[in-house]
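#lab-general

N.A. 3:47 PM
ok so I finally got the sequence cleaned up, no stray characters, all 233 residues accounted for. can someone with queue access submit it? mine expired

B.Y. 3:52 PM
send it over

N.A. 3:53 PM
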Amino acid sequence: MRCGTFSAAMQLILQSQNIEDVAVVRCQGRIVAGAEADALRRELENLTRVRKKVVLQLADVGFIDSAGLGALVRLFGVLQNAGGGLKLCQLSPFVLQVLQATNLLGVFHTYSSENEAIEAFSERPRSAEETSNAPKNRIVCVDTSSDLLAYLNALLKRSGYEVFTTRYPSEAMILVRVTRPRVLLYGPGMRPSESEIEKFRQSVPNTQLLLLESDFSNAEAGQAGMALVNRIR
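B.Y. 4:20 PM
back already:
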């Protein structure tokens, strides 16, 4: 067992520890867009150069916003694709409430203790819950933030939609023409002009255009997610 360093960025304190082939990161504070999410990302990038199995202990996380949760979703996919995995343990009441509200509790593998999460890596992999196979309405999401797109992708898929994401407006327009989605969702990092909006509505009248609020990325992830899903429905 080898202990790592402590690092802090504004209101997030991280303690890393390597236990055999598993990296354990204990988080205290807020996981939000900006310095905090960047610090967590850098810490995990350093740890996962060798180890692809990560346990995040979240007992002392008091707040997580949409972009912060998106960073965890993106990390989950990256590690899974690399043959490793991400497991969450000791969820604080706030984090548990957010994951339940956004319907993302079934995406992550969660455990009551660090030991259980570490030991779970030696067990047969358990798959995330699947959503219904019924025909799904399509949504195209475009924004500059990869973390926010990861959050939207997971949130909306768990709500029963087929989701396409891109960081490029020109690619979003191609996706709209090809997939004919129910909704084109512009994130706060993208703001089309009035002429672009009018052109879009004329060319694709059956697709709804939604613009996320400028503070969506920094909003509490659970409330923001529920509000967005209700807005789309």
